[in-house]
Amino acid sequence: MMDGPYCVLTVLGVLGTGLVAGAFCAFSTFVMTGLAALPPAQGVAAMQAVNKAAVRAPFMLVFLGSALLCAAIAVVALVAGPDAGAAWPLAGSALYLFGGFGVTVVANVPRNDALAGLAPGTAEASAYWTGYVRGWTRWNHVRTVASAGAAVAYALALT
């Protein structure tokens, strides 16, 4: 079992990635389903409002802070080497950095940016909405599983 500052970093890694996994899980399991049930103009407008709210300090602190924390944990694990039980911390860092943070950057944010450029009541927005919900949610499932997996890997690193 690890101790000292590395242990504290790892506990914070469990907490941060777990919180992000929970937020993503909420969207995958009921938020997107609820938004998809609305008429397209209302769904688009609601998601645009959600996307604006998401880039405020409360969520961004947890989301970006967890990415920085995961990077720090990976560096410490690499410096400590395989004899120090680096496999679980490295797995947790990779899962979050690539599957949680990375997928957000390459799959979800571009969809959000495209949606932000549409006026909710237009035919273009309605046409985009169905594909948006399907694609965004599919990638959100990946983010959810990866972030939860990171939390599990960090928890296993503590044993």
Q: Which blocks of ≥5 consecutive residues have pLDDT under 50?
A: none
Q: Tally the structural domains.
A: 1
DSSP, total strands: 0
State the assembly state of the protein chains.
Answer: single chain
How far is the N terminus from the C terminus? 5 Å
Major beta sheet, specifics?
none
**What's the rounded overall pLDDT mean?**
96
Estimate the strand proportion.
Answer: under 5%
What is the overall shape? elongated
Query: Rg to the nearest angstrom?
Result: 18 Å
Q: What string, H for helix and E for strand, traces the elements in order?
A: HHHHH
* Class from helix and strand fractions: mainly alpha
Portion of residues within helices = over 70%
Count of DSSP helices? Answer: 5
Q: How is this structure best described in words?
A:
- The structure is a single chain.
- The chain is mainly α.
- The protein has one domain (4-157).
- Helices cover 86% and strands 0% of the residues.
- The protein has five helices and no strands.
- α1 (4-36) runs parallel beside α4, α1 (4-36) runs antiparallel to α5 (123-157) and α2 crosses α5.
- The longest helix is centred in the last third of the chain and has 35 residues, at 123-157.
- It starts with a helix and ends with a helix.
- The model has no long low-confidence stretch (mean pLDDT 96).
- Keywords: Membrane, Transmembrane, Transmembrane helix.
- It comes from Streptomyces prasinus.
- InterPro entries: Anthrone_oxy.
- The chain crosses the membrane at residues 12-38, 59-80, 86-107.
